[in-house]
Amino acid sequence: MNNLMQAFILLLAGFIVVFVVLILLIIVVTLYSKIIVAAQNSADKKKARKTTVNVGNENTAAAAAVTDDEEDEDDGEIPGEIIAVIAAAVDAVYGDRPHRVQSVRRSKTSRSAWSRAGVLDNTRPF
Hints:
Layout: H1 2-50, H2 60-64, H3 69-75, H4 80-93, H5 113-122
């Protein structure tokens, strides 16, 4: 009877240790993720204050490549507004370093609509 009681106490102690360590790991990971998110947000705020989006300098050549929206839709070309948005996004990403958008072209997709929906569903962020 004494051995059975010692085995039960050892089993109970093992369960308690495992669950306490798991709870501590959950707390550590949660705190770490909150610290990282706060640091990223503060860095983004500093960067937003430091740099201003200047679409006019580097992006004029890319936007001037397409002249008329009506012709673009007929030819399958990319409209000028879309090129300007792409150039502004590139400028926002590479704001501190010199950069230039040399060409913008449509990707050639040979996938069906169902296949694209599957890819979008499987690559959606958490």
